[in-house]
TrEMBL record:
It comes from the Eukaryota. GO terms for biological process: amino acid activation for nonribosomal peptide biosynthetic process; secondary metabolite biosynthetic process. GO terms for molecular function: ligase activity; phosphopantetheine binding. Residues 1-199 form the Condensation domain. Gene3D superfamilies: Nonribosomal peptide synthetase, condensation domain (3.30.559.30). Keywords: Ligase. The keyword Ligase applies. This is Condensation domain-containing protein. Pfam families: Condensation. One of its GO terms (cellular component) is cytoplasm. It comes from Trichoderma harzianum CBS 226.95.
């Protein structure tokens, strides 16, 4: 979540970014909820304030603490808020989801993927990225957001998939977002004591 917030901040050039993140809903205070059948997922908004002199490690701590504090509210739906559906406007147009995937690695269909590229890897965990351009015929099957980042933990590998609507985000811009995300992840691991400005000077625009 921290890396995604930094990436969005870099592209929209705003000290405040808002995006949605998917929660499983399985840690609500209901007895044996882990054995229940059915979907309990919900999309929760995350708002981050990112200053260029912020340290990566401090930003990680802040985002984690905010996430923990927000856990009791993960079942709250946006439509039940006092503002209803925010007068027809979306609260965010970017989302992120993280899930464990115990299934075997599967090849991504080439007709649905415009680019599949290993941007970086580090033993023992390999990180691969896929970039998927969603056409109009697929829109009904994908959440209606401009860009969606999906992270799958496969145990010995991480698969990061970036879905985007070409009519709203150019493919070149989506590729740049994927590259910057990869750079931010590597920086968080290798240079957590650096500031946002040191790691990622603002040079992109949406």
């Amino acid at each position: 979540m921290t890396a995604w917030a930094v990436v969005l901040d870099n592209f929209v050039k705003s000290s405040e970014v808002c995006f949605g993140y998917l929660v499983s809903g399985r840690d609500v205070p209901v007895e044996r909820i882990e054995d229940a059948v059915g979907l309990y997922i919900n999309l929760v908004p995350c708002k981050c304030t990112i200053l260029q002199d912020s340290l990566l490690q401090q930003l990680l701590t802040d985002v984690h603490e905010d996430f923990v504090r927000s856990s009791p509210n993960q079942s709250f739906t946006l439509t039940s808020s006092p503002g209803g559906e925010f007068q027809g406007r979306s609260l965010f147009n970017a989302t992120i989801s993280f899930q464990r995937d115990d299934s075997s690695n599967q090849e991504i269909a080439p007709d649905k993927t415009t680019s599949l590229e290993r941007l970086w890897s580090r033993d023992p965990t390999e990180v691969s990225y896929s970039l998927t351009n969603i056409g109009k015929d697929q829109e009904a099957n994908i959440l209606q957001y401009d860009i969606v980042l999906s992270v799958a933990d496969k145990g010995d590998a991480m698969l990061v998939s970036l879905y985007f609507y070409n009519g709203r985000i150019p493919e070149t811009e989506a590729k740049a977002i994927a590259m910057v995300f990869s750079h931010v992840i590597a920086s968080i691991i290798d240079e957590p004591e650096h500031t946002i400005q040191q790691v990622l000077p603002r040079y992109h625009s949406c």
